[in-house]
Design goal:
It is built from 12 helices and 9 strands. By secondary structure, the protein is of the alpha/beta class. The protein folds into 2 domains: 95 residues, Aspartate/ornithine carbamoyltransferase (Rossmann fold); 152 residues, 3-Layer(aba) Sandwich (Rossmann fold), CATH 3.40.50.1370. Strands 7-6-5-8-9 form a 5-stranded parallel sheet. A 4-stranded parallel sheet has the order 2-1-3-4, with helices on both faces.
Length: 297
């Protein structure tokens, strides 16, 4: 049985297969798939969401299934029931699970004990659905990512950065991470990924010749107590016009949203690249439908 728990163990051929199917879903959205006919998929969210929840609910519905949204506060998980017990119950009642939570080990334990396809819709360690969508969006607009330069700017130890690190080890592109020393990924993680990865504190050097400039929020859910410190330490790591001018003339700028303008990206640059950023958001729907199809093949 397949799961999508992260990108580290997903083969490049599997990624490309998902991208090809995502393109099919996008081009022919009017054709309603019946792959999930008669199925109910649980969406178990311990973290709030706009894009992830809507894209999965709509996607499951368009594939003929029924999404069942379960907030952690509405079920026994919110009262301390073990993950494995919840998994063994839901595995007898629903056909798949999409989990958005804090601990990576919770998603992995659910997959182990539930016996149903399980998707990591975000944890503190990885966000595989988002990065697969980002790569699909780039390739749709610029062709294969192989041989290109992707620059991640901001918290280089975040879940988004980690998923980009694992993707770099699969798809043969150069990943540059521009981050303060305290926000850089560990050398062990870089070695584990096997990718062509450059870590630097020099944001301007990192941006030179880039094909893609990428950023994310400085303060993720669960880090609110660190807000003041994070904003102070990451304040020099912003995508703006002067940084974009260092990249290639046709550089793409992406943000996985929500965006806090004036922090990780300024308003002028955000609006100049809004068409890409919001198509990137739309593509969550198509890529996640392709992920579900891949899990069930």
């Amino acid at each position: 049985m397949r799961h999508l728990l992260g990108l580290e163990k997903m083969a490049s051929e599997e990624m490309e297969h998902v991208f090809a199917n995502a393109l099919h879903f996008k081009k022919d959205r009017a054709h309603k798939s019946k792959l999930l006919a008669g199925q109910t998929w649980a969406l178990m969210f311990s973290k709030s969401s706009t894009r992830t929840r809507v894209s999965f609910e709509v996607g499951i519905h368009e594939m003929g299934g029924r999404p069942l949204f379960l907030n952690a506060n509405d079920i026994q998980l919110g009262r301390g029931e073990r993950i494995r017990d919840t998994a063994r119950v839901l595995g007898r009642m629903v056909h798949g699970a999409v989990i958005r939570t804090f601990a990576q080990k919770d998603v992995e334990e659910f997959a182990q004990f539930s016996g149903i396809p399980t998707i990591n819709a975000l944890t503190d360690e990885e966000h595989p659905c988002q990065v697969l969508t980002d790569i699909f969006t780039f390739q749709e607009k610029r062709g294969p990512l192989s041989g290109r330069v992707v620059v991640f700017i901001g918290d280089g130890a975040s879940n988004m950065a980690r998923s980009w690190i694992f993707a770099a080890g699969k798809l043969n592109f150069e990943l540059r991470i521009a981050a303060p020393r305290a926000y850089q990924p560990t050398s062990e993680l870089i070695h584990r990924s096997g990718g062509n990865i450059v870590i630097t504190e020099d944001i301007r050097q990192a941006a030179r010749g880039a094909d893609l400039l990428y950023t994310d929020v400085w303060v993720s859910m669960g880090q609110e107590a660190e807000t003041e410190r994070r904003i102070r330490q990451l304040s020099g790591y912003q995508i703006n016009r002067s940084l974009v001018e260092l990249a290639k003339p046709d550089v793409l700028v992406m943000h996985c949203l929500p965006a806090y303008l004036g922090k990780e990206i300024d308003e002028e640059t955000f609006e100049a690249h809004a068409s890409t950023i919001f198509e990137q958001a739309e593509n969550r729907l198509h890529v996640q439908k392709a992920i579900i199809q891949w899990l069930l093949e």
